[in-house]
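# step 3/5: fold
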Amino acid sequence: MFEFFPGDHVRSSSVNLALMAGGSLADIGRWLGPLRDTPEAGLDAWAAAWAGMAHQQEALAAGDVRAGYLAAAGRRYLRASVYHATAQRQIPPGPTKSESYAASLQAFGNAMDCGALPLVRVHVDSPDGTLPGYLIAPDAADPRPVVIVYGGLDLTKEMLYATVGAAFARRGITCLVIDTPGTGELIRLRGVPSRPDYEVPTAAIIDHLQARHDVDARHVAVLGVSFGGYYAARSAAFEPRVSACVSWAGSWDCGALWRRRWDEAEAEPTSWFLPWVTGTGTIEEALERLELWTLADVWPRVTQPLLIVHGENDREIPVADARRAFEAAGSADKRLHVFAAAGGGAEHIQSDDPAPALDLIAEWLSLRMPVLPEPPVPALA
């Protein structure tokens, strides 16, 4: 993996995620370069560098707006949204995190106001309250199948959009990026933690889709990114209306995985994170609650077409977990694709080379999701 901060996997992975979502290496080099020479610099310096990067893009975008260059302004605002979102990822809950997240939402809204993002806002009623999201629709006269995209433990719908863009729409599939329990607005603005039974929000989302006239909700796939792979698999196992499942990083037993990472001190730099996402008070309570996030007995219930995409050198979820998941899955139509280091994309969610993985996922789904209207059933004589 490209390590902007040599030997610092946590900060380097955040850089790669920002690049994956459309960030500029030139911007990152200018604003984060000084931090490489000051390893003692803390979270305040980290947040300030990303904020400066974002504010610069916003100032340039404002100039584009004054000149009438709305498409250019929209792209800059979207990049600023990514930078603000990256600033808050490693910051514990508090004023700095809240300000960075609010700034990310504002910049994304500015991009939408410029008409640069072909999105439709949606609000889904659910047992956890309203779930906000964006529909990315193909340019088609008729309703198309839908893929619901779930982020992992720290992605937002805005970052998801910046990552997947129009990859599915180009192939005739409507895409829904959405904040759900433990992610985005729900955890940051309303304090709604994650939940192990993710079929509950998935059912609410499909109910909403079935009530719409601009999508074909007879065919709804789920795609989970990173630990969202758990959400996708769990949804497919217990929500029969899911027609296909993609785990972009194959999950097996999140509780056991995080227990190991904590015991080996891998998770200590973000010790606040697990209690925050799980709605618990201490790290030990969080680890105990995470024992419910296991797919060991769930994968056999997944019978829909299944794709698991993983990296050979994944340092977040071991590739062995993806192989166990693949073997246990009950799907007759299933594929495991492991990106190897020699060809690129070997890191977690292929953050070192994401385009081939996204193309693979979109192409695989397009072959399993009917994109043409089905003929009407003839009436009985």
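# step 4/5: annotate
The two ends are 64 Å apart (CA to CA).
# step 5/5: archive (pending)
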